[in-house]
Amino acid sequence: MKQNCILSPSRLLTEEEQSLVWQKPLSHIESEAEKRIYQEVKRNWNRGEMKISTILMEGDAGSGKTQLAKALSADFNLPYTKVTCFADMDKSDVLGSILPVLNENNKSDTVEYRYYPSEIVRAYENGWLLEIQEPTVIRDAAVLMALNSALEPGGSLNLPTRIAHRHPDFIAIITTNRGYNGYRPLNEALRDRVQHAEKLDLPTKAVMMERAKAKTGYYSENVLSLLAETIILLDETAKANAIKGVAGMRSYIFWVDAVASGASVKNTLYHKVLYKITTDPQELAILEQALASHGLLEMLSELDTVYQSHLEGENPEVMEINISDNGEYAAEPDKADKNAIRLRKSADSEGHSDTSSDKNTDASSNDNGENGTPFYHELDKPITSQLQKKEFRKQLNTEARQSVQGSFHDAIKLIVHRPEATAQNREEYQNMAASLLPVIRELIRKTNPLLEHKVSAEFTKSQLYGTKFCADQAASLDFRVFARKRPPGEEPSLAVALRIDESASMSAFGRLDAAKQAAIALYEFCTGCGIPIMVYGDTADRSKLEQMSIYAYVNFENKDIDEKYALMNIQARSNNRDGMALRIISDRLLNAPQKTKLLISISDGQPKAMPDYTGDKAAHDMKDTLQEYRRKGIQFLAAAIGQDKEAIRELYGAENTLDITDLKQLPARLLQIIARFL
């Protein structure tokens, strides 16, 4: 255990401040992140401009961000306090408020106004350790901007009554989750003022087990290892399938505690872990399938019928689980091991699932004709002249070439196509859409109420505190003499781009049909919800004069209803130059006025094009392109539907990759993802 570091030895804390210094419980285990931050702060504390006093911790729920912030309070003997941000937070929540106070000793009912500092100001002036929780949920960007100058070394805050100067011992720790509902990226100015950042993920299995022992007093190595392995697998599966819930340390510790008390391992798995991740039947089925495929569901079921560990003699219904030094499970029926768990096989070891069958979709609608055959509803078809189409195609080609100027692909010969829809395309689209429409319409019905939000920039008068003083209210005796700006409504503002890899390998295993169905489902859902959508396909090396081919099927600007039928022209063609395609599509998506911009890529393989766009060279270009446009505000999601899923996950990141094993699930999974961004 390291010694505490008193940052200012001459400083004496008051009794109140000393009570705010966090005391580490016996169950606390120092993490590598805590040791690293402690050493960095201690090493740089007296180095002037190199001083580290603003720290960012980013990670999933339950990864230990708040615990780490409190531990640093104990390490540096600083009073700990926190502020939890919320969506409608305004500057008065940061800087404090002026409130009316009635003097009880004054019988003339004279009203006085007194300034009350916020918790941020108190920590800032008194030199405490302040944890700022979830600033990414704040809707008004100006609120965070108010902290920019405060986080400068020797910075200050402009308060209503004075200027507050930063105490030399003040440490700010910003903690935030990654990519949850309501998440907004930290503005660049605030992020730039951070001197040290930590990415906190789920700890290793060994660390998880040690923490659980310390917290619960339960010491069965085998059970702790099995439960930790389950949590790790669920966390990886949730990220790979874009399931928003989290399997973290909190879930693990409470699950271990329940098992230690004698509760059913299988039942508590749902109540302590799975239902905290999600209650959606389809998502539960995905998680259960992952557990079953790794043999963990069966092992967890068998723990419910565990024998006494000292039971002697053989029993045909009893099996042993042996754990090697590296934590892996190994069955060794020929060797007796006193440390092994002896389990009785359960008569009912089937997995639990609330999943409803896909066949059981009883949706009553008017989408059927007289003979019961589904039909497709047409909208009025506008007239688009050939000249307009030609000019629009020319515009797309010009913009595409501008997108790649000065990039790795500058010299690549490029053509943007606008495929024309035929009568056969129309018929194929209608047949394919008919089977998808019931699901799409039901999701639209559930989603549209979420879009009915109002936006207001008006001021609400007659408030006890606020940002604007109303002189005409000063004569009122109810003290409501301020106005507050009404916060903007949470208006969903989303634009979607779908990119489809049209490489030759897409022709295998039904991938092409899955991509077409996904394109139809996304188009119908987005148009039904009023969400702008564009759908592009791409291939490479069709000829020496056409090294890169872009197929602009659906565009934001085009109002031609018939363009959706052109989606049936999606086909397997040649190679794929992914980085160039993403660059062109991303630039078009950036022009959309919507705040949230989501680009979904459906791909079955790694980037590969002539003469040498492959391997590390292509991967480097892909990562550079993704990083560049993420900084510009685009969120990427890859649907991996081929054999190169691990390589695609490496390019896009595990948290941004959908692993689609069953291609029939692709349209529904993408619609669920879109709905979460609203």
TrEMBL record:
Composition bias type Basic and acidic residues, residue spans: 344-361
Residue ranges occupied by any ATPase dynein-related AAA domain in the UniProt entry: 55-193
CDD domains reported in the protein's UniProt record: vWA_norD_type
Pfam assignment, any one: AAA_5
Entry's Gene Ontology molecular function annotations: ATP binding; ATP hydrolysis activity
Domain of life: Bacteria
Ranges of compositional bias, category Polar residues: 362-371
InterPro entries: ATPase_dyneun-rel_AAA (IPR011704), NorD/CobT (IPR051928), P-loop_NTPase (IPR027417), vWFA_dom_sf (IPR036465)
Region Disordered: start-end pairs: 344-378
Protein name: AAA domain (Dynein-related subfamily)
Species in which this protein is naturally found: Alkaliphilus peptidifermentans DSM 18978
